Amino acid sequence: MRIFYLWLNLSLFSILLPGFAEAVDLRISGDLVAEPCVVNIDSIERQVKFNSIPSRNFYLHPRSAPESFVIMLEQCDVDIAKSVSISFTGEDDSEQPGLLAVTGDAKGIAIVLETEQGEPLAINRGKAKFTLRKGITYLEIKAYLQASKKSIENRGVKEGEFSATAIFNLEYE
Length: 173
Known about the structure:
By secondary structure, the protein is of the alpha+beta class. It is built from 4 helices and 10 strands, in the order αβααβββββββαββ. It has helices spanning 2-16, 41-44, 57-60, 149-153, and strands spanning 38-39, 67-76, 83-90, 100-101, 103-104, 109-115, 127-131, 135-147, 162-163, 166-172. The termini are far apart.
């Protein structure tokens, strides 16, 4: 009852003070497009897990072994587009620009992203082009951990848990 009463009072107030009313135009626009593919639901929130890696390994080899993952595009219509470019956005590592920064206890490392063919995918600026196939197209990506030169020189790779988040973007051509 109180809600109705308050609403009624506000309605009467706006009727009694018509000089304070103002007309506002509402403009709505957008683009309706035909997407050539549908991103597979399991690819939308992809998690990549690295096995335990001894920190001393980085002093001999600045990169870890790769962890591969796939972004699957389904129902691809090659009459709409012939290729797709993928790029990743996220927090740039301060010591290794173009690499994905990690958060957590681990220090001195960042994440490298590249295609299965070794083409780098620099965070916030790199992209790789893939040919679309009718039906299903697999975008195969590798992730590595890489120690910075500074952390290797100073023996500053610190053990601990880490995480990072990147968003992939697709551009069809």
